[in-house]
């Protein structure tokens, strides 16, 4: 029988693998956006939130903040790169008003990270204090990342359509939250358990909504609507 530490390590590795696929799960959505050359009714909120979440966790994993956290840096570094790619695609195929919101959000996140790094490195001199501060901040933004799909869920309920709520992202969020919550329970860690418990709950609600409104969703793309959206986008860019 495997000892608890070995079991926890195995669960942690599984969590890393699932996190990797979590970052890749929105792929079909962006293929659809690229084909249509329009973001249609998709929202960038979850991806913008994940950019900041990954940036905070990458900083948390640095040797001068939390030593021996290479896996934290690698998985979140990959996540940061792929999420910036997603946001870039949103920016390219959005109209100017949506682009402004994306720019403002990213600027705010960059300023926040600059302040956080400055305060941590200037006023905190031990890895214990630095780990505690960045760990708490990371938890807060992990929760924001998991709750950011609320805007999408509201749209699903009002339109009775799950067309613009990516199924694979919802499924990956649910699986990721469950695995990391189990990881935290094996050797009780509230800092990991709280955000991932909420993440699994958020993913479960999304899956329930998907099941509830799947039949009322019109999956046939309205080409005229896409053409009109693209035309408006082009005009606004002139």
UniProtKB/TrEMBL annotation:
It is found in: Cell membrane; Endomembrane system. The keyword Repeat applies. Pfam families: MtN3_slv. It comes from the Eukaryota. Its main location: membrane. The keyword Transmembrane applies. Keywords: Membrane, Repeat, Sugar transport, Transmembrane, Transmembrane helix, Transport. GO terms for biological process: carbohydrate transport; protein homooligomerization. One of its GO terms (cellular component) is membrane. It is a multi-pass membrane protein. The chain crosses the membrane at residues 12-34, 46-65, 71-93, 102-126, 132-153, 165-186, 192-214. GO terms for molecular function: sugar transmembrane transporter activity. Mediates both low-affinity uptake and efflux of sugar across the membrane. PANTHER family: BIDIRECTIONAL SUGAR TRANSPORTER SWEET5 (PTHR10791:SF159), RAG1-ACTIVATING PROTEIN 1 (PTHR10791). Belongs to the SWEET sugar transporter family. This is Bidirectional sugar transporter SWEET. The gene is std1.
